[in-house]
Amino acid sequence: MKKSILTILFSIYLSFNIIGLIPALTNPKTYKQGIYSLSDFNISKNNTYSIRNSSKTNDIRVLIFDENYLLLQNVSLPKNTLDIDTTLPLKPEYSLVVIGNGELTITPKQS
After folding, report:
1. What top-level branch of life does the organism fall under (predicted)?
2. Where do runs of H (alpha helix) occur along the chain?
């Protein structure tokens, strides 16, 4: 009886520790100046995302193009900005252009 209770308690302890590690594994990547396909980001279709310039010294501009290379959104991010929500849902077939020496971070929007 004592062994089964200890086993259950130990299992619960481990499960809570594993759940606590999940956010650490999903840390957002940073992207520097360049052209990216949104399929590289493994985004969910039609989900909205927050973008941030995490650079402390450089501004950046973010351009989002659709599959026909038509400009959908143009966002200027000053240095060290807080999260800014993209105004349109992103799709994997869209392209993203980062201009400037800052660092772009993309995270799913918290609902």
Report:
1. Bacteria
2. 2-25
List the domains of the chain with CATH numbers. 28-108 (2.60.120)
Backbone φ and ψ of 48, nearest 5°: -95, 150
Strand ranges in 12-108 using DSSP code E only, listed in sequence order: 30-31, 34-37, 49-53, 60-65, 71-77, 84-85, 95-100, 104-108
The distance from CA 9 to its chain's CA centroid, rounded to whole angstroms, is: 35
Phi/psi at 46 (nearest 5 deg)? 65, 20
For the stretch 6-40, pLDDT in tens is: 777 767 766 665 554 444 435 567 788 999 888 87
What is the strand order of the sheet 49-53 is part of? 30-31, 104-108, 49-53, 84-85
Please determine, for residue 64, whether its predicted confidence score (pLDDT) is greater than 70: yes
Question: CA 80, CA 58: separation in Å to the nearest integer?
Answer: 8
| 54, burial (CB in 10 Å: exposed 0-12, middle 13-18, buried 19+) | middle
